[in-house]
Write the structure tokens for this entry.
Amino acid sequence: MRTNSSGVISARGSPPNFTDPETGSSLDMGGEFRVFHPGLRIARPCDKSGKGSHGFTELLFAVKVDDRGGVIRQAWIDYEIDGNPGSRYTLDLKWVMVLCGNEVSGIYDKHSCSASS
């Protein structure tokens, strides 16, 4: 999880510096990074997100794939409000995340993972 005023679409490497293992270049995003663990508490009220220097809270997926690439077709986030077990919810992420590699090119459209996309 990362708190900052700018977002990440895609980056190679691992947080917080996202150092690309092939080129050695890095993406300095700043902000605060916390590794997920069950029970991680996010205490930013919704009315504070995105205002002034408060930025926003962003969930990062750090995924390791080989040369074949990979696809995440769906993910779920279980959460509760104010630590109250009576207010448990599940957020169903209906995203398709394509991790480019030699076996995933063009899976969802002809431009997936192409050099010109």
In short: Residues 1-5 have pLDDT under 50 and may be disordered.
